[in-house]
Structure formats: C-alpha cells, structure tokens
Amino acid sequence: MAKAPGRAASAVRLFDAHCHLQDPRISAVAPSLIRAATDSGVARFAVNGTSEKDWHLVKQMGQEHPAVVPCFGLHPWWVPERSPDWMDSLRQFLSETPEAAVGESVMQIGLDKGSHGKTIDFGEQVEVFQRQLELAKELEKPVSVHCVRAFGDLLEILKRTGPFPSGVLLHSYLGSAEMVLGLANLGCYFSLSGFLTGMKSTKAKKMLKAIPLDRILLETDAPDALPKLDNVSLVTVPVDTSDADTEKCDIDSTSPAISSSNESLNHPSNIHIVLSYVASLLEMPEAELAELSYKNASKLFSYPGSKVHL
Ligand SMILES: [Zn+2]
Predict the structure, then answer these.
(1) Which position among 11, 188, 239, 297 has the lowest Cβ density within 10 Å, counted as fewest Cβ atoms?
(2) What is the 149 CA–ligand 1 centroid distance (Å)?
(3) What is the 48 CA–ligand 1 centroid distance (Å)?
(4) pLDDT tens per residue, range 258-298
C-alpha cells in the first residue's frame, strides 16, 4: 500500500466528514488506513454504514477506533434490499451506539436519480428517506445526505419537514450555487469531496463562494471519490482481488463506477488533496480552511442532543 503524505500531525487537523471505511473493498485494511490518515493529521472519521449488512461493522469500528464517529442509515442504493424490520434495527443501532468510544451516531440517508439510483424506484426512495428523516428529527440527530440529481426533490422535502436544528450534512455536494442559500437556511452543511474535481472549476468556484463559511465541511467518501487532478500525489488503496472483492462484486455489481477490478481506491489521507483544491478555489490559506472545516464538523457532530462534545 502507498504511504500517506509525510506531514506532521500537528500541521493541520482535519475531520473526514463522510467516508465508508467499513466497505468490503477496504475493511480488511481499515485499521492501517486509519493509522496512516491519523498520522497525516486526520483526527476524526465519520464512517457511514449503508445497509443492514454493514451497520454492525460500523458499530464495531466505532468501538475499536476512538477517532471513528459511527453513522447508520439506509443508503438509497440498498433500499430494495431492506428487511421488513429495518426501522427497528436502525433504531436499535442508533440507541445502542451512544456508548461507542467517541461521537454519537448520526444518520445516513439519501435520494438518487443518477446512473445507479435510476434503477431504484424513486417513490420507494422518497418513502424510506422521509421515514429516516422523521426518525432523525425525533431523536434530534443530524443526517448525512447522499443526493444525486435530486436536489429539487430534496429541497422540497426538507422544506416540508424542516427546520433541522441538529443539522443536515449534504455529502459530496455538487449542486448549484443558486441552491446553496435555501439549503443553508434549512440547516444544511456542505461537505466537499474529490468528486468536486470533476466539476468545471469556474462553476465549482462560484458554488464554493456561495457557501457560508460556518457550513463548509471536507470529506473523502473513501473508498470512492478519488480526486481527479494532474500533478498531485494521491494515496491509493490497491484493489484486493481476494474474498473481500468477491463480496464487493456481490453487492456492487450494478455500479459501473466501482466495478472495475483495476481501479484504485480512495484513501482517507487524500482529504489533504480535497483541502488544497477547495482552498485554492476559495483563495483561502489551507490551514485556515482546515481549522474552520474541522470546527464546523465538530459542531455538527456535537449536536444539541448529544452527550459527546468533540
Ligand atoms: Zn458515501
């Protein structure tokens, strides 16, 4: 495995506001990824479970690694596979996990009309999304939202269901600059990932400059969202072709983006690359953006009902 960038841990501290270190493609090496990223200055990782199949792994990761904030919920891609008891199970994970070493559990939910999500009935996605949003409101927890090509629907649902005093994290935000203010007024935070490098830089710059400074977060979405930039030294995780990959093919076979066995996977240390890219577009010193995004994430994950203060 490639080594993490050789940065002093004290140089900056970063909070990876959304990643999937429990993903079967990398779960076997997750402890070494966490170690390497921690050495490079990443102090916290919000690890998002995506279905009933991986919630126990996220819970376990939270217990084993104090830097991990466990997040549970049903990602839109796995909506059709849910069991009849999924809500009871989700409630149980959310109520048991405050005992995890650091950070209380938050929820991961979403809407997807993109290439993957298109194959999943949107009405069903909305129903599952709304049920989870209601649960998050009831439990006063923040939600981490996956939204692909459905920002109009998202805004409408959030307006109808909001406000959200515990906060809403819009993971890997790629929406327009024009939507930022309306979403921010509802309590949304805007989490930026390596996918931003795929957006035209003038559009990305306009969108970033529209985000209030107290709502900016950084994330890797590892093992996905590897930044696509020239002349940067990315840290990648080689794809394991053994059992873990077999399991991956089983659950991800319909995703063209991650089905190639030759593809490099994203490492949480690459949050430094996201930091540099976003800082350059915002014309802001990297250290300043690192600190403000860390504080924003700490505030969001230490939400009012939480007993934990990061
Ligand atoms: Zn994700």
Answers:
(1) 11
(2) 15
(3) 7
(4) 334 456 899 999 999 999 999 999 999 999 999 999 999 99
